Automatic annotation (TrEMBL):
Cited InterPro entries: NAD(P)-bd_dom_sf, SDR_fam
Highest taxon of the lineage: Bacteria
The protein's name: Short chain dehydrogenase
Keywords: Oxidoreductase
PANTHER family the UniProt entry points to: PHOSPHATIDYLINOSITOL-GLYCAN BIOSYNTHESIS CLASS F PROTEIN, PHOSPHATIDYLINOSITOL-GLYCAN BIOSYNTHESIS CLASS F PROTEIN-RELATED
GO MF annotations, alphabetized: oxidoreductase activity
Gene3D superfamilies per UniProt: NAD(P)-binding Rossmann-like Domain
Source organism per UniProt: Oceanococcus atlanticus
One of the Pfam families matching this protein, by short name: adh_short
Amino acid sequence: MNNSHVLITGAASGLGWGCAQRLAAQVRKITLCDIDTDGGHRALAQLRQAYPQLSADFVAIDLAKPDQIDAASEQLRAANDPIDVLVNNAGIFPPAQRITTPQGHELTFAIAHLGHFRLTAGLWPLLQAAPRAAVISVSSLVQKNAHIDLSNLDLAHGYSPIRAYQQAKLACLLFALELDRRLQAGHSRVRSYAMHPGVCRSQLGANRTRQRGDGLLGWLSYWFLAKGMQFYGQTPEQAAAPIELAARGDYPAGSFLGPSGFLQYAGPTGICEPGLKAQDPDLAADLWRISLELNQIDWSPHEG
């Protein structure tokens, strides 16, 4: 991995930052991507100070905004530096009340799935230019209990924060496994993996204020969960172990990696079994088709 270029979304904090710290001593370059410009530049400064041999850069990107995704992709393509590892990590703690993007998409799904789908397509020439690139999609344990209704992806009916999070993380896993099928069918050098971090300490939702429509009990539950996530579980750097092993190619392409300890909360990395919904190739193919339509793009990774 010594000559590798790694790009990480959601890299200013949490799992993305833990991933950057874990890989910094092993690679040539890390590109941090995040909506948090101040946090991204702080993370960049820390990387450069701690690892002076590392080439590091920051690209501001809001994965809920297609124009920003396209601008970032164009900027990176213009630099003509092949990407060896793309870590699709960015996500949000779903709001208590449904929020949609200007395109009408539920925000959690738009960032975690649609945005990463579009970004991966936009960076595809740089991934193809690498000797053996890896696309690593971050899912979650919650995908096992997730339900996804392709006619209600924006959750116009039946929205709840946990349903939004489950659907988004299932979509991430479906994307990774369908991308693997297409790459293997086309005999591509690019590999696709999915991972989940088990239980990882996170700042997700920590700064969220009470919103109109929040019930008191619902808000308190939300607040305690967000606070608990800051202190309970693996450190982000520990939780990023499956990303490192996927990047190194220690597991077969198409693997879903995560902790192998009790309830997969923590422990050494192993291959995990996706939930039943994630194992449905027809569902994955349908989601792929819809994702192309919603993004209004044409992308066939198996053809190149």
